[in-house]
Amino acid sequence: MHSKLEIEYKVLITNEQFNTLLKLYPHHLVLSQNNTYYDTTPSLKLRGMGCRIRTIHDRCIFTLKVKQDKGHEEIEFDVPTNDIELPIIQDVLRKYNIENVLPMGSLFTRRHLVELEHAELCIDYNEYNGQIDYEVEYELKDPSIDTFDEFLSILNSANIPYVPNKRTKIQRCFESRRNEE
Q1: How many other CB atoms sit within 10 Å of the CB of residue 131?
Q2: Quick check: 134 and 18 in contact, CB under 8 A?
Q3: Which residues neighbour 70 within 8 Å (Cβ) at sequence distance 6 or greater?
């Protein structure tokens, strides 16, 4: 189990901008991942938290994000299955006084990952609840070295304006589910 401070910058983009970025970075790793999102009543969002289990191939990774003054503390570890009832997960949830967690949605991402010196550039195609969207994320490898200017330069090279995306994948997934009801 490990914990780290996650600082990232995100922008929702169009399909055309997505394809432009892929052309600018032809050498990238492609990962397919399924995210199962969990929530409680009242919502974890009200406490500045988000909870998921991500599956990449046969690997399952539990993540609890806890909002900080800048970024999120990300508690993350591998689990043997996509099962929120696993004792190791329940121990973490109890530590943060989280009870009655239920699966609330799932989202598929095809992530095009570009390793940069100080950050990971993620060019994402997302599907959830009959919706498709595209997002570019720039996640700092070391939160003490903020290379936001590099992200702006990448966006500029693809003619993408920097419009910060404040809605996380989990929020978009939950909102689209409510819109279907």
Answers
A1: 15
A2: yes
A3: 5, 7, 143
Q: 72: which DSSP letter?
A: E
What number of CA atoms fall less than 13 Å from residue 132's CA on the CB side? 5
Q: Is the dihedral of CA 29, 146, 3, 35 positive or negative?
A: negative
Both tokens assigned to 139: 């996640």
pLDDT digits (tens, 9 = 90+) for 101-134: 999 999 999 999 999 999 999 999 999 999 999 9
Q: Which residues pair with 75 in a beta bridge?
A: 3, 64
In this model, does residue 4 exceed pLDDT 90? Answer: no
Is 138:146 a contact under the CB 8 Å cutoff? no
Residue 130 three-state SS: coil
Burial of 52 (0-12, 13-18, 19+ CB in 10 A): buried
3-state helix, strand, coil in the chain (%, to 5): 25, 45, 30
Spatial distance between the Cα atoms of 27 and 41, rounded to a whole number of angstroms: 43
Q: What is the pTM of this model?
A: 0.91
